[in-house]
Write a structure and sequence with these properties.
7 helices; transmembrane; mainly alpha
């Protein structure tokens, strides 16, 4: 029942004037920024991008909030991939040490793990940006097909009424 309701809300977004391009771009940018490896920055970045690019901010923020657990889980793998790609030694970094640093505050994390976070951002750029581009292309095709099928069914219904 809840999935059907969610599906109806989603299709209503297509009826509200969002083009398939805008919807696909909003979602793909939200996914891209939603897994950004510096926790606590995504809302600000998404709000800025949504205003600058005139994208759908509610959709973007909702997707970002849904992806928060994924973002947290990907911080260390992004750092490890960055260490590997850029030739750095592995630093003892685990979930507990990150949680403790975040409990002390954002600047404690930056001071302790700034180098690793830069490596994580580098690997995020290398991995997540191409994934977001492919996601945009896929979603654009899907939303365009949905919109054209909806137009076809609306035309069929209006011709039957006449």
């Amino acid at each position: 029942m809840r999935l059907r309701n969610l599906g109806q809300k989603f299709t209503n977004l297509l009826k509200q004037g969002l083009s398939p391009k805008e919807l696909a771009l909003s979602i793909s940018v939200a996914v891209l920024i939603g897994v950004f490896p510096i926790y606590g920055t995504t809302t600000f970045i998404l709000a800025f991008l949504a205003l600058k690019m005139r994208l759908n901010m509610p959709i973007m923020l909702a997707i970002s909030y849904i992806l928060t657990p994924v973002q947290i889980l990907l911080i260390i793998p992004f750092a490890r991939v960055g260490e590997f790609l850029f030739g750095f030694e592995t630093l003892g970094m685990d979930i507990e040490s990150l949680q403790n640093a975040y409990a002390e505050g954002f600047f404690a994390v930056i001071s302790k793990y700034s180098g690793r976070l830069i490596l994580a951002v580098g690997s995020w750029l290398i991995i997540a940006v191409p994934v977001a581009v492919f996601l945009y292309i896929f979603l654009f095709q899907v939303f365009r097909a949905i919109k054209s099928s909806r137009k076809g069914s609306e035309n069929k219904i209006s011709s039957e009424i006449k």
